[in-house]
Design brief:
With 326 residues, the protein is α+β, with helices and mostly antiparallel strands. It folds into 2 domains: 192 residues, Jelly Rolls (Sandwich); 110 residues, Homeodomain-like (Arc Repressor Mutant, subunit A, Orthogonal Bundle), CATH 1.10.10.60. It is built from 13 helices and 13 strands. Strand 2 and strand 3 form a beta hairpin. The two termini are 40 Å apart.
């Protein structure tokens, strides 16, 4: 496994060092990486002062461990990651698999260190946007996005910007359209710039409609919440445990636990558990090896009717109709 320690930023101070860590070089806006590590493209572009796009479309030829320790903590990274294979993000005492939980969009404050591990044979298509925190504030004003308490949101003393989320279908299609273009040159840069502005606008509009929890998050608290998620996923076939027991296991009060969980995932623990239970139910139905009743029983739904109602509420089709659509 090759290990690379590096930093990012909302300027162009980092590509040269990252290229050297890979044993490669920078040519124009491309980071050229030796083919024994991976094949494909790494491309960066300053969209405007304080906003940098990092485009990745590669296939890994060896295991890779990227350690991110940012020296500048005045920016946020928006990680749109469509990895096909095995890739995990971990820090200190926790690890999460992006594809397993379908968290293909991560918003990570530059104050938080992280490790990225990817296995040989995996393919990554990702667009990462690094944006200075003060640019976020000016962006909301320029685009008439009503984001309450924006000055507190970007204040590192009052709030840590962290969210593991799922990108919208619109964002997915924007990335898919961008991937069809030849990388580099004026036309691609124009499309990339437009895509970055649309992705930023879409996400800020999305979070402006939700309750935003202002709270600082340290590595230990983050580890406890992710550990809780991992345990909920591990026991997804069982009944939902009580909030009291989850908070006790996380060494937090119930109010702190619920606020942190919602801040980091955008969901309550109950909703997170049910959504992932329904995703597993959908996977089981797709195999056509179990009946609807058997899936309901295996996942410990109260009864078949309750399972059908929750499934339809989430996916828009009853389990029976979903099987027919398959």
């Amino acid at each position: 496994m090759k290990t690379i320690e590096h930093s990012y930023g909302a300027d162009l101070s980092w590509p040269e060092n990252l290229a050297r860590q890979f044993g490669g070089k920078v040519e124009g806006n491309f980071i050229i990486v030796p083919e024994d590590i991976h094949t494909g493209t790494r491309y960066f572009l300053e969209i405007e002062p304080g906003v940098v796009a990092y485009y990745i479309d590669v296939e890994y030829n060896r295991n890779l461990h990227l350690i991110q320790k940012n020296t500048n903590q005045n920016f946020v990274g928006y990680y749109y990651n469509l990895t096909d294979g095995e890739a995990t993000v971990n820090t200190h005492n926790f690890m999460y698999n992006v594809s397993r939980w379908q968290y293909n969009l991560s918003i990570i404050d530059s104050s938080l260190d992280s490790d990225y591990n990817v296995k040989k044979g995996s393919k990554t298509y990702a667009l990462i946007i690094f944006i200075r925190k003060d640019i976020i504030e000016s962006y909301t004003k320029q685009h008439d996005i009503n984001l309450p308490n924006i000055s507190q949101l970007i204040d590192p003393a009052k709030n840590t910007m962290i969210r593991f989320d799922r990108m919208s279908s619109e964002s997915y299609h924007l990335l898919d359209d961008l991937r069809k273009l030849k990388v580099g040159g004026a036309i691609f840069d124009l499309y990339l710039t437009g895509t970055v502005h649309l992705l930023i606008s879409n996400y800020l509009k999305k979070i402006s409609t939700k309750r935003i929890i202002m709270q600082t998050v340290n590595q230990q608290d983050l580890a406890q919440i992710i550990t809780t998620q991992m345990n909920l996923i591990k026991n997804i076939e069982n009944h939902f445990p009580s909030i009291k027991s989850l908070a006790e296991n996380a060494n937090m009060s119930e109010s702190k636990f619920k606020n942190l969980f919602h801040k980091i995932t955008g969901d309550t623990p109950n909703v997170f558990f049910m959504e992932n239970k329904l995703l597993l139910a959908k996977e089981l139905l797709e195999t056509k090896q179990l009946s609807i009743s058997q899936v309901s029983d295996q996942l410990h739904f109260t009864n078949n009717s309750y399972f059908a109602s929750k499934f339809k509420e989430h996916f828009g089709l009853s389990p029976k109709n979903y099987i027919q659509e398959l």
